[in-house]
Write a structure and sequence with these properties.
The chain is an alpha+beta fold and about 260 residues long. It has helices at about 5-15, 25-30, 35-50, 80-85, 95-100, 155-165, 175-185, 190-195, 200-215, 215-225; strands at about 20-25, 50-55, 60, 90, 110-115, 120-125, 125-130, 140-145, 150-155, 235, 255. A hairpin with a 2-residue loop joins β6 (about 120-125) and β7 (about 125-130). The radius of gyration is 22 Å and the shape is elongated. The termini are far apart.
């Protein structure tokens, strides 16, 4: 299949078999066309909006109904993209919360935690925002179905732990509080304690204080027992803000130096 037109036809026919992604290497192997011929076909398809390339060598077919947006949803290709990049990942933070039903604050971009730094993806109006974590081991995630397959999504307990690790990316503490309230009934206290073992102690203190503050007593008590016998040093809720002359919370030793008002 050295004819460039046949390569184009193969790419455009991929959705008929439920596929929307392919690699440059695969296109070269399947087509048998020269490097310059493959490059020409991909250039023309990109220019017409039929294909986008979130990363070098990785391509996504854009159905006509998504041409105006410039890309199909990130959920269609994020799992394949992360395999292409050889990265461990899971959909996280506000994106995971929304998938678990906490949709009060819908994120503009899909938020993903990966095991190494990655540049954000922006194709058309679709964005993937990456956050790096060196504590992927033990992070519970589950496969959720998508229109084209599945993707890894943090469990409610893992989502809660990550929200306190990345409050800035989660819209600030008031937004974190809103999401925790919405997720509260789905968070298993045993799983929350397991997830908290990945956190720095100060973040466990912050999470415990948040649960107490929001009336999630079962979760707060589970975290309190997990910290039994460990020293709880005074910890500002927001490290970048002044915490002088504010007495720490007696239970968690958290210095509440920021506003926390859930929007519910």
């Amino acid at each position: 299949m050295a004819d460039p037109n046949r390569l184009r036809d193969w790419i455009e026919a991929l959705p008929e078999s439920g596929r929307y992604v392919f690699t440059r290497a695969e296109a070269e192997r399947v087509s048998g066309a020269s490097d310059s011929a493959v490059r020409m076909v991909l250039h023309r398809l990109k220019r017409s909006g039929a294909v986008v390339s979130p990363r070098r060598g990785f391509h996504v077919v854009v159905p006509r109904e998504y041409r105006a947006a410039g890309s199909p949803p990130a959920s269609w290709f994020v799992d394949a993209l992360m395999r292409h990049l050889d990265r461990r990942y899971y959909v996280a933070l506000l994106s995971a919360a929304a998938l678990h039903g906490a949709g009060h604050q819908q994120p503009i971009a899909m938020q993903v935690i990966a095991d190494a730094p990655e540049r954000d993806v922006e194709v058309g109006r679709v964005r993937i925002e990456f956050h790096v974590s060196l504590r992927m081991d033990g992070a519970a995630a589950q496969r959720m179905p998508t229109d084209t397959g599945s993707m890894l999504v943090s469990t409610p307990a893992t989502t809660a732990c990550d929200l306190v690790r990345f409050p800035g990316a989660s819209g600030g503490w008031s937004n974190v509080a809103t999401v925790l309230v919405e997720l509260g009934e789905q968070i298993d206290p045993v799983e929350l304690v397991d997830g908290s073992r990945r956190l720095a102690r100060r973040d466990v203190q912050r999470l415990g204080w948040m649960c107490d503050h929001l009336g999630l007593g079962v979760l707060a008590d589970a975290l309190d027992r997990a910290l039994a016998g460990q020293q709880r040093s005074p910890t500002p809720l927001t490290s970048s803000l002044t915490a002088e002359e504010i007495a720490p919370d007696p239970r968690w030793r958290v210095v509440v130096n920021d506003d926390v008002e859930p929007d519910l």
